[in-house]
Amino acid sequence: MITVAFLTNDLRSIDAHFGSAEYLAVYGIDTNEVKLIKVAKFNDERTEGRIETLKKSGVDIVYCVEIGPAAAAKVVNNHIFPIKYKEAVNMASELVKLQNMLSTNPPPFIKKIQSQRA
Questions:
Q1: Are strands 61-64 and 2-8 parallel, antiparallel or unpaired?
Q2: Which helix (H) or strand (E) holds 27?
Q3: What is the structure's pLDDT at 114?
Q4: Domains in the chain, ordered, with CATH?
Q5: What is the model's pTM?
């Protein structure tokens, strides 16, 4: 199982910038199940505080609409893979896409996460 976090303001879509997201929705996902682990409201606007929240939640991959290069580097240095979209994406659709990817041919970065989890 991998752990993904979606940064969101509306709790339905990946629609938030890393530095200004109101909420973090954390899901565990594998080929057989998707489960909501937690929804947390960010209390810290600092990059380091947000990264600490991700780490405490066991996040492997974080999805957002935008992330600055310095924040992205800090996220990667903490062994969390950032994925950014240019526009809002529905969380449910992304979970289906991820689950399909896991059951067919995951990209190398996901295979690495899976091998580290094993």
A1: parallel
A2: strand 23-29
A3: 85
A4: 2-104 (3.30.420.130)
A5: 0.93
